[in-house]
Amino acid sequence: MCLLLDHGLRVSEIAILTRAAFDLKAGTFTFYRPKVNKTQTHELTPDTRRAAAAYLKHDAPQDGILWRKSSKGTGKLSSQMSETSATRALTKRVELLSRHVGIDGLSVHDARHYAATFEARNGTPVNRLVDMFGWNSPAMAFRYIEAAHIANDGTARVKAA
Question: Taking the alpha carbons of 62, 64, 70, 75 in that order, is the dihedral positive or negative?
């Protein structure tokens, strides 16, 4: 969830992550964005760093992609997933986790929209958003950022009042 909500990754980017992507000492991870043919490095958020450290220590396979199948009913981890099955499974896991916290219909892509909106509303400049999300133009930022409920919220004149 941290990779989706804190870093705004696409599920296709998460599905192909390997152990080698993470440098916990440096506090970074490096990943490939197939949709835009870019390799990027992100600084891990504190939550992502804790989650990655725990998963890498206890559950992640030594080689190949990070994700493993879980047995229905028991939740015990078993064999490694393929990229295709990881994409489907991660999508289903997000839907399941969201239902458990009372959010129906949340998708992995909704998390990317949330991450972009969160960053924009907290003052991240558009050029940094373009870099963070791996977009090829600033126009994409405006397609992802949710409109404010109050149209002039956060503008200079309202802040000065």
Answer: positive
Phi, psi of 41 (to 5 degrees): -120, 135
Tell me the C-alpha distance between 152 and 40, whole Å.
Answer: 34
Which residue's entry shows tokens 């999300």? 133
Q: How far is CA 154 from CA 80, 116, 120, 121, 124, in A?
A: 46, 16, 11, 8, 13
Sequence-distant (≥ 6) Cβ neighbours of residue 55 within 8 angstroms = 66
% of residues, the chain, pLDDT over 70: 85
Q: Report the predicted TM-score, pTM, of the whole model to 2 decimal places.
A: 0.82
What integer is the mean pLDDT of 99-103?
93
As a whole number of angstroms, the distance between CA 138 and CA 131 comes to 9
pLDDT at 153: 72
- Give CA 28 to chain center in angstroms: 14
Q: Which of 43, 13, 11, 50 lies closest to 28 in space, CA to CA?
A: 43
pLDDT digits (tens, 9 = 90+) for 102-117: 999 899 999 999 999 9
Return the bridge partners of 29, or none: 22, 42
For 85, residues 6+ apart whose C-beta sits below 8 A from its C-beta are 69
